Amino acid sequence: MKPEQWTDIFTLLAIIVVADDRVYKEEVDSFVAQVDILKSEVGSDALVTPKLAFDWFVAQRDEIKARVQQENAEFFIVRTIQGLLDFPNHGALLRSMEAVSVSDREFHIEEKSIIQLAAAYWGQTPPY
Predict the structure, then answer these.
(1) Which class for 110: exposed (0-12), middle (13-18), buried (19 or more C-beta within 10 A)?
(2) Among 16, 20, 69, 87, which is least packed, fewest CB within 10 Å?
């Protein structure tokens, strides 16, 4: 796995958090947990920690939310998905996206659409 792919992973999971225009503590906690799980599953030696993931989310949340609310949001989302075309474990990433999306006990259509879009680009079946 390329170390620079962590930015796209963080961005994609953050898109799931903000997609429904609400941010709950459970989603942020899940975001952090899923980053840690992905790091373990892909065996990355990148210096990615739960604190780094949380701090990154806090710093980038408003910008990502603004980009998701723009008319050309799909371009931003697709570019992020394409940045992960050669990620070594798309299934794990899709499961992480789903885990973040349902952590608030709701599975919003916006979140489901993003997961379906990623799965289609990666030639995968959505995890749900």
Answers:
(1) middle
(2) 69
Alpha-carbon torsion 90, 95, 98, 104, what sign? Answer: negative
pTM recorded for the entire structure: 0.93
Would you call 79 helix, strand, or coil by DSSP? helix
Judged against a pLDDT cut of 80, whether residue 45 lies above it is answered with no
43: left (phi over 0), alpha (psi -120 to 50) or beta: left
Of 79, 89, 81, 72, the residue nearest 13 (C-alpha) = 81
pLDDT (tens digit per residue) in 79-120: 999 999 999 899 999 999 999 999 988 888 899 999 999 999
